[in-house]
Every structure is written in structure tokens, then in C-alpha cells.
Amino acid sequence: MLDVSSQSVGTAAPRRGLVRRVAILASLTLVLVAVAASLYMVRTVDNQLADIAKTYEIRRQARELMLAVVDAETGQRGYLITRDEAYLEPYNVAVGNLSQTYQSLLALISDNPIQLKRIEALVPDLDAKRAEMARTIELMSAGQSAEALALLRSDTGLELMERIRTVLRQVIGEEDDKLIERNGRMEFYRQVLVATILAALAAAAILAYALLSRTQRKVVALAQQQNRLRSANEELEAHVRERTAEVEEARGHAERERARLETLLQDTNHRIGNSLATVSSLLGLQLARTSSDEVRNALEAAQLRVQAIASGHRRLRLGADLETTDAAEFLADVIDDLAAQMPPGKPVTFEKHLEPMIIPARDATTLGIVVSELVTNALKHAFTAGQAGTVAIRFERPEGGVTSLTVEDNGSGIAAGDGQEGLGALIVKQLARQFGGTEPEYRAREGGGTAITVRLPRLDVPTAR
């Protein structure tokens, strides 16, 4: 018995599912049919409404045409009877409206051959009526009142008016018949539309019931799935928090390592600068104990070069990437150190024209040595003891050009070969080649003095703005 019952229940479930699906499909089909029928009915009703509106407009234009003829005739008769020209104003207005009203009516019935034929047949009568009215007014204006009144009393005008009225009444009558017919169709379409809407509502109710029962089952399944998703989401969030903490810890460690490395690099540069300063001091002590002028000159030159290298290392400030530095800021500090080392007997001022430019840090010290050699060369050869003057240092890269370093003075100038074959010139030449440069360019400065330019093509790096 238990096996039979289980088999019966298992068989009934698919049948109920099949019946439910058939009911939903039938209801949906009925809704779609009802919607399509409703749309068709609405479109049909719109067309009928447009036809009704056109019918009313044809009737109105036909009446307007009849009234125009009547108003023109009334103005004509009033003028002929009273000879008061005030009656000519409504006459002229009515005659002027005849053509416009006729054309409007003609355009409205252009798709109706029967009505079009009737209206076109009015043209001779309308022209004859206008001619008859114009003739009587012309005769009266010319003082021929007897002839004008005789023409007015003739039956010609009455016959024309009667024919015009008859045709326009036929036009209006046919449009009235169409209006009655279209109103009947509108009533029929309204009843069909109501029946279609009721059928659609019934089908929608059946469909809504079927969908509601199915939705309830879906909601239960969705709630269970949401619970599973919530649990999985909580586990995922815990994992994300754990990974975020690890990432934050790693980033903090990287930032600390970067800060430590930056400090180490700065400390290394300062240590190198201090060590070179010690070497410079030792050279100074040796210089004080030497009596030979040749040795003194060599030691003094070596001391100045060691001081330049030491100044470059102490003044080097690395950028955020720990690989670049601002050349303008670095060279300004180096030039300030050179100015501070000036002996009291040389009242020379320095002018700095330095374009902000980011350069590799490894090239900064080399660039500082080149500036130091050129400035020292200018101080040594351009000015005599106690002579005041100016040394200008320019570091720039013209638009689309090559980076260049220029040191110029307004001193006495350098004689041919003076300062161009010494150790300093050789150092500048060798260091310039590291940046792809050529021989330093020596030229006389306008107004006195000398300018030395070193071009550095490989130092062509983005400008700091």
C-alpha cells in the first residue's frame, strides 16, 4: 500500500506541474493577444478620431464658404440700397476670404473624388457671382444706379446663390452622413475595446495567481541561498580583513625600509663629504708647510677640487625616488659654497640663472665639479687682485634645444690659450664627454670678459615644474 501511494503522489506531481505550465502559457498568450488587440483598437480609434476631426473641419470650411458668399452679397445689397460706402468694407473682406476658404476646403477633400468634383464645379458659379456683385457696385459707383438696381433685381444673382447653396449643402450633408457612420463605428470599437480589456484583466489575474504561487517558492529558495551567501560573505570579509592587515603591515615595513635607505644614503653622502673635507684640511696643512711655489699651486688646486667634490656630496638632496635631484637647487648650493670660500681680496659677486631641471643623482656631483672648475678658472684668470666683478652661471635647456652650462665674467678676459690647456680645462673636457658634450666653447663677451659654454646632450631629462 505504501508503495502504491508513493507512486500515485509521484505521478500526480508532474501532472500538476504540467497543468500549471499550460495554464500560465495560455494566460500569457491571452494577455499578449489582448494587448495586441487593444493596441490595434487604440490605433483604429485614433484614426477614426482623426477622420471625425477632418469631417468637422470640412463642414466648417463649407459653412465658412457659404457665409463668405452671403456676407459679400449682404454688403453688396446694403451699398446698392443705401449708397453708404461703409457696406463695402464687409463686402471686400468677404470677397477676399472667398478664395482662401475655397482653397482650404479643396485641400481637405482632395482624397474624396465625389466631393472634389462638387467643389470644383462651384468655380464657374463663384466667379459669376463675384463678377455680378462687382458689376453692380461698379455701376452704382459710376452713378448708373438704375442699371445697377436692374441687374440686382434680375434672377441671375438669385440663381447663382441657390446653386452655390445647393452644392455646399450636399457637401455638408455627405459629411454629416460620414459623421453618423463614424460615430457608430466608434461605439462598436469602444465595446470591442472594453471586452478586450476585460479579457486581458481576467488573463492577467490568472497569470498573476500562477506567478505568485511560483514566486513564493522562489522566495523561499532565495532566502535559503541568501543565508548561504551571507555565511560565505562573512568568511570572505574575514579573509579580506586578514589580508588587508598583512598588506598594511608589509606597506609599513616597506615605508620604514625606504626611510631607512633614504637616511642611509643621505648619511653616506655626508660622510663622503666630511671625509673629503678632512682630506682638504690635510692638504691645507701640507700647503702651510710647503715653501715651493709650484708645490703650493698644485696643493691649492687639489684642495679646491677636493672641496668642490665634498661640497657636491654634502649638498646633494635626493628626490622622492632616491635616484634624482633638482639641478637648480643643487648648483645654487654649490655656487654658494664657492662664494663662501672666496678670499677677502676678491670682491666678486655671483649671478645664478638656473633653470629647474630634474637630473639623475649620479650625475649631480659630476655637474658640480664642472661648475666649480669653470668658476675657479674665471676667478683665477679674469680678475686681478682687488678687482671687483661679476661671474654669471647659466644652466638652461632652450625649447627643443640641448642642455647647456655657461659661465661668463666681465673681467679682463682670457688671453689666447690662457686657461684652456691646464688641468682644469682637461677635467672639464673629460667630464663633459660623459654627457655627450664636445670641446668647451670659449668666446669673448660683449663689453669685456669671457664666456665659456659646455653643452650636455645626454643630460636632456624632463624639467621640474
Strand order of the largest sheet: 2-4-5-7-6
Overall geometry: elongated
| Overall pLDDT score | 78
**Secondary-structure content class:** alpha+beta
Sequence stretches where pLDDT stays below 50 over 5 or more residues:
none
How many strand segments?
A: 7
How can the largest sheet be summarized?
5 strands, mixed
Compute the separation of the termini in Å: 94 Å
Task: Tell me roughly what share of residues is in helical segments.
Answer: over 70%
Task: Output the radius of gyration.
Answer: 56 Å
Quote the beta fraction.
5-15%
| Helix-strand pattern | HHHHHHEHEEHEEHEE
| Total number of helices | 9
Task: Reconstruct the topology from this structure.
Elements: H1 2-82, H2 88-108, H3 113-141, H4 145-153, H5 155-288, H6 293-315, E1 324-326, H7 327-340, E2 348-354, E3 358-360, H8 361-382, E4 389-396, E5 404-409, H9 423-434, E6 441-444, E7 450-455
Parallel strand pairs: 2-4
Antiparallel strand pairs: 1-3, 4-5, 5-7, 6-7
Question: Mind explaining what this structure looks like?
Answer:
The chain is built from nine helices and seven strands, in the order H-H-H-H-H-H-E-H-E-E-H-E-E-H-E-E. It is an alpha+beta fold and 465 residues long. The chain has a five-stranded mixed β-sheet with strand order 2-4-5-7-6, with helices on one face. A hairpin with a 7-residue loop joins strand 4 (389-396) and strand 5. The radius of gyration is 56 Å and the shape is elongated.
